[in-house]
Amino acid sequence: MGEVRSLLCPANPSRNGPGLPCPTHYLGIAGVGEDAAELPLADPRAGFFGYDRRLTQKDLKDGASTTLMLAEAVDGGPWTAGGKATVRGFAAGSRPYLGQGGQFASLHRATNVAFADGSVRPLTAAVSPKVLEALATAAGREKVEGLGD
Asked: Which residue(s) pair with 123 in the sheet?
């Protein structure tokens, strides 16, 4: 399958060869926790994407401008694979969320993210994990302050 340019970061040289599935450099945000994509929509840790849930505009209790939808990652898998290759939650504890070596690392100084309102902005590792966790949920009703960018 050919490349889908909108799923690839122009600065990332990682591509698959002919006949192999096209990778994605942008992953869907499932919420907070390793199990976030499996959570029911009513769970306060649930994010924009999930394996078996459907989100509507009225489900965005935190607001579209403060709900993360996508984040850049250097280790995205084939976009047709689904699962953790394309959708994941912010998994606390093992490493930072953004920046070099982060779960959502980028080849840039900042990680590009897209919000549910369609806006795109770069976020740096200076954004606190607590703020990122609040942004990762769709209905956690957390107050979001200090994006630090």
From this structure: 111
b (16+ CB within 10 A) / e for 47-60: bbbbeebebeeebb
pLDDT digits (tens, 9 = 90+) for 69-80: 999 988 888 877
- With bands split at pLDDT 50, 70 and 90, how would you rate the model's confidence at 149? very low
Give the residue, 56 or 143, on which the prediction is more confident: 56
Q: Which amino acid is at 101?
A: G
**Distance between start and end Cα atoms, the chain:** 37
The domain segmentation of the chain, as residue ranges, is 5-136
pTM of the model: 0.85
Phi then psi dihedrals of residue 38, to 5 deg: -100, -5
* 84 close to 27: Cβ distance less than 8 angstroms: no
Rounded CA gap, 9 and 24, in Å?
8
**Alpha carbon distance 80, 92 (integer Å):** 26
Which strands form 26-32's sheet, in the order they lie side by side? Answer: 87-90, 26-32, 68-72, 111-115, 120-123
